[in-house]
Design goal:
Layout: E1 4-9, H1 13-29, E2 33-39, H2 41-46, E3 48-53, H3 61-67, H4 69-86, E4 90-93, H5 97-109, E5 113-117, H6 128-136, E6 139-142, H7 145-152, E7 158-160, E8 183-187, H8 192-212, E9 217-221, H9 228-232, E10 239-242, E11 250-254, H10 257-264, E12 269-273, H11 277-286, H12 294-299, E13 306-308, H13 314-326, H14 328-345, H15 350-364
Parallel strand pairs: 1-2, 1-4, 2-3, 4-5, 5-6, 6-7, 8-9, 8-11, 9-10, 11-12, 12-13
């Protein structure tokens, strides 16, 4: 295939990592393609020309968006202008639905094909988005098995491509954790706002646990794009900062992609979530699912306990973690439930599947 330009837009750390895998897979299939858009350090390392960094949209919830709306609009307008001047052959938006779905409409108006990767969670709230996606995309690459049927029912050309965490399924250890639990991960999120709200609660719980279980190994993986020094001032000296998730036995983890990563690697834990009161009340109105943690949503049951908003305190988190530390039966049952998620997700390699689909769309143009 002759040289082509592919536009990609990702807005946070996990999307940056998943999109980078897609870029590498596409470059292997189509070496002459050029990648431009908005992303993070991993996409840039994979070969994308980042006209905007993902920190441009580093916001959390409704209230943060309201404060930065002018800046967000300037970035949006800039990407629209890039579409007009560089006329990419394909647009691959990654997650970030409130921003990317609007860009999809503009791309379609310009005749640019759209392959959306990592679907908006329309099955949780704003179900009308499924019908909209049928109009504004050529394909929707979904990463959870149940999503394919959900979106297809609304006319979306959806395919389950596998989950990015299963990219190297053969290298995932049989079980990350062991008894008795000694290694505990603290994962407060990948955005500054999340860290400032959730990490202090995790630290409170850690200190309570240490009263009866001294000498545990505490580790906190710091997301790329976050200054470790800013995290260090919020932690005790015995918390080890890492640049990736090492092998651990237990985790206290913010709801989101990291909770699923911990689970499929076999480490039980507690899912944590806290936001502003306004964001929480709005979510209560619109979100219509029983769980917020992806391991629990996929399983349809409580694989990991969830502590949300007012229920998330240092005391409650410590007590829930102590139940794992002091009850082997509970720990082993949770570990088996976690590793069982691997079979649900299956062995597909998401980046390869997305790259092949992208090539199909480009060749059909």
């Amino acid at each position: 295939m002759s040289e082509c330009t592919i536009l990609m837009v990702a807005g946070e750390a996990s999307a940056d990592a998943h999109a980078a895998q897609v870029i590498r897979a596409l470059r292997a299939l189509m070496p002459h393609c050029r990648f431009v858009g908005m992303g993070g350090p991993r996409m840039q390392e994979a070969g994308m020309e980042c006209a905007w960094g993902m920190d441009e949209l580093s916001v959390m919830g409704f209230t943060d968006v309201a404060r930065r709306i002018r800046h967000i609009y300037r970035v949006f307008a800039g990407i629209k202008e890039l579409m007009g001047t560089q006329r990419p052959s394909l647009f691959i938006p990654v997650d970030l639905p409130d921003f990317n779905m609007r860009l999809c409409r503009h791309a379609r108006d310009l005749g640019i094909r759209v392959l959306y990767y990592i679907a908006p969670q329309a099955w949780a709230w704003r179900r009308s988005r499924a019908r909209t996606l049928a109009r504004i995309t050529d394909g929707l690459a979904v990463i959870f098995p149940f999503e394919e049927a959900f979106f297809r029912a609304s006319g979306v050309n959806a395919r389950y491509v596998g989950h990015p965490f299963m990219e190297d399924a053969g290298q995932i250890p049989g079980s990350m954790s062991s008894w008795p639990p000694r290694r505990i991960a603290m994962l407060p999120g990948s955005r500054r706002h999340e860290i400032s709200r959730i990490l202090p609660v995790m630290m409170d719980a850690k200190r309570r646990i240490a009263l009866t279980h001294p000498g545990l190994d505490w580790v906190l993986p710091v997301a790329r794009g976050i200054d470790p020094a800013a995290v260090r001032v919020l932690t005790d000296p015995d918390v080890r900062l890492a640049d990736s998730l090492p092998e651990v036995d237990l985790a206290m983890v913010k709801s989101g992609t990291s909770s699923l990563e911990v689970a499929i690697r076999g480490a039980p834990g507690v899912i944590c979530y806290k936001t502003s009161l306004v964001n929480y009340l709005l979510a209560r109105i619109f979100v219509k699912i029983h769980h917020i943690g992806m391991p629990n949503i996929i399983a349809g049951s409580t694989v990991m306990p969830e502590l949300i908003q007012a229920d998330l305190t240092g005391e409650s988190l410590a007590q829930t973690m102590l139940a794992y530390l002091e009850d082997r039966g509970r720990f082993e049952t949770a570990r088996q439930a976690c590793t069982g998620l691997r079979h649900v997700l299956g062995p597909k390699k998401a980046s390869t599947e997305v790259a092949r689909w992208a090539r199909e769309l480009l060749e059909a143009a």
